[in-house]
Request: fold
Amino acid sequence: MAVTTQQLIRWKQQRRPITVLTAYEYAIAQLLDQAGVDVILVGDSLAMVGLGYETTLPLTLEEMLHHAKAVRRGVKRSLLVVDLPFLTYQESPRQAIRSAGRILKETGAEAVKLEGGSPEMAETVRALVNIGIPVMGHVGLTPQSVHQFGGYRKQGKTEESAARILSEAIALQDAGAFAIVLEHIPAELAGEITQKLQVPTIGIGAGPGCDGQVLVTSDLLGLTGWQPPFAKVYADLQQTITDAVKQYCAEVQEGKFPE
Ligand code: KIV
Reply:
């Protein structure tokens, strides 16, 4: 049965951990869906991991739509969530409705994700939810604010910053978000937020106390040379691909392929 946003909330109540992974193209999306991942996120990490940009900031809505459509074709069971790229929603709730509306209409995704939990962002979430667009929130280390943070640093380390992240998460829930990503914050803070919220928290670098976990799939697969310290590498595809490609080149050059 297809996963819904309501199902995620029931899983939180049942303490059934939620699995989330990123995908940017059809073949990987199909594998993740068939392997039983609950939520597939077309994250704006696409910018860095899939398109080679330095940060997530340059990613456009058109690029996101293009990739999300390909992912949709591979996803049958998982809930499909698509990130709103930088500056496609921060200007006003009206801008967010236009961008999120395009994502749902043109890609067939079930929900969008956006970063930040300021009072203005909570208003934007409310505006989207009011017209029937499900929203996943994202607080803590929000990569679209990398220049404000001065790097990809852990957030919520001081009492003041921890209190702000907690109140942002509550504000997003109250505005109607169906789940909230907690990125790179202390495990104790993530545990506290998880206990205080009725909607599920999805952690990345936020310890084991969240209702679910998300990883960037290329980190999990060892496809890139570098992974963040909190990622777990489950396979070494960089080596596997390099070996296969070298063998192919050698066999072509030696006249062994094609036979
Ligand atoms: O863009 C992304 O991949 C994300 C996840 C890491 C949560 O936002």
Notes: The chain has eleven helices and eight strands. The longest helix spans residues 159-175. The beta strands are 18-22, 39-42, 79-83, 111-113, 135-140, 179-183, 201-204, 212-215.
